[in-house]
Structures are given as C-alpha cells and as structure tokens.
Known about the structure:
Strand content: 15-25%
Radius of gyration: 15 Å
Order of helices and strands: HHEEHEEHEHEHEEHEHE
Shape: globular
Largest sheet: 8 strands, mixed
Helix content: 25-40%
Number of helices: 8
Low-confidence stretches: 3-8
Number of strands: 10
Strand order of the largest sheet: 3-4-2-5-6-7-8-10
Structural class: alpha/beta
Amino acid sequence: MKRLLxxxxxxxxxxxxxSPEQVRSAFLYQMAKFIEFPNQQTKTSTKFCFLNIDNGPxxxxxxxxxxxxxxxxxxxxxxKKPNDLRELSGQCDxxxxxxxxxxxxxxxxxxxxxxxxxxxxxxxxxxxxxGVASLVQEGSKIRLYIxxxxxxxxxxxxxxxxxxxxxxxxx
Length: 171
C-alpha cells in the first residue's frame, strides 16, 4: 500500500517530464521526502547541491524553488569540485554528481568518514566506487539504485518507503 502511495505521488511528476534531466530532478525531490537527515528538527531548508546549475537537474530544481519538503523550502546550491567532503557534507543534504564528474569525486571519497549528505550519481560504477544512490538510465527509463552498504555507514536514515521502490547494488 505504501509503495502504491509513493508511486501515485511520483507519477504526475514523471508523466509531465520530457527529458532524463526532468525525471532525475523529480526523483531527487521525491527522494528527499523519504530521507531523515541529521538535525532535521533544526533545519531551515532542504539543501540540494550541484556542480552545475546551468543545465540538468540543478537547473530544473532551480526553476522550482517554491517546492517544499516537510514544510521547509528547498535551497539549490552550486558547488565547486570538493576537496574536503566533510565540509560539503555539512552544507548539503543531497549532492548530485553527474556522470562526467563521478570519477573525480570518487577518488577523494575512499578515505571519507561517515557523512551527512546523500551522494547521488548516474551510473552503477558510482555505486561501486562508494556512492549512496544512482539514477541510472536503462533504455527509456530512469531507475533508482541504492548501495545499502553505504547507506548503513552514513549519518542519515533512508526510510523503508524509498527502499521499497529501489533496486540495490550490489545485490
């Protein structure tokens, strides 16, 4: 029943989407609703961070700043390639890394302690390199994959409703 409710909430957003970027931005927005971030009670906004807000999901969410998650507005932040993921973790709730930047980020990642931000990429390789979630294009569909091993090592909680509609890698 919960799975059906989640899908019903997601379908109107996806039906209007015309491009992979629009679908990914809808997924990012919906994902944030089903993740409990550290210090949730004291937050003033839900922060989405992107390396690029000139195109892709960052641009789309930037144009929809009136969206809210748990009655809090969303905030879109453009970041530079991070050298210190700990600092980035304190600034962002969800950090989206497009496929062209995944390798640069993953090299820095390996030595990282538990983080507060959910790192989302676009490929299975992103998950294999330590990413938390990935929005992978499979034919004409975008599928959400989650690395459960990484989820359990970080300081946020992914609710079961999100896990129920996800695929897992590695299995």
